[in-house]
Amino acid sequence: MDAAQQESTARARELQRSWYGEPLGALFRRLIDDLGLNQARLAAVLGLSAPMLSQLMSGQRAKIGNPAVVQRVQALQDLAGQVADGSVSAAEATDRMEEIKKSQGGSVLSNTGQTTASSGAPTVRRVVREIQSLLRCVAAAGDIIDAADTLAPTHPELAEFLRVYGAGRTADAVAHYEAHQS
C-alpha cells in the first residue's frame, strides 16, 4: 500500500470513528466474534455485499450509505450485548438475526414490533441510537461540535444536545435522555 492509500485509509477510519464511535473493522470483527458469524453471514444479515463489507472493514470506504444498514448494525450491537450478558441464548440470537436481516430499518419510534422491547415500548438505548444515527447521517462529529459551539451562547441546551447525541458516547446520551425525561 502506498503512502496516499495509507493516508486515505487512516482518514476513512478516523471518519468512521467520528460517525460510528470506532472504526468499522473493529466493530464488525467484534460482532463476528460475539455472534459467531463469518464475514459472509454478517454481510448477509446487514444487507451489504461481501465486497462492500470488506471495503468498510479495511477503510477503503468510510461511510455506510444506507440508514437501514446502520440501524441493522445497531440492532446487532444490542443483540451482541444481550448474548454477552446471558439474556439471549445462541439459538434465540440466530432467530433474532433473521428478524434483523428482514427488517427494513424503519424508525424505532414507530409501532413496529421488531424494534420494541417486550413491553411494547422502544428501549431508551434504541431511541438514543436512533437520534445518534440521524444526527451522524446529517453531519460529521466535528461539524456537529462546531454547530454546538455556535449555538452555545444563545441556546446552551440545544448545544448540549448536539454535543451529547451528535458526538458523544451512547452511554452518555442514555444518561442525558434519562435525566431529561419527566
TrEMBL record:
Region annotated Disordered, chain positions: 101-121
Cite the record's Polar residues compositional bias ranges.
104-121
Q: Which InterPro entries match?
A: Cro/C1-type_HTH, Lambda_DNA-bd_dom_sf
Name this protein carries in UniProt:
Transcriptional regulator
Lineage, opening ranks? Bacteria, Bacillati, Actinomycetota, Actinomycetes, Kitasatosporales
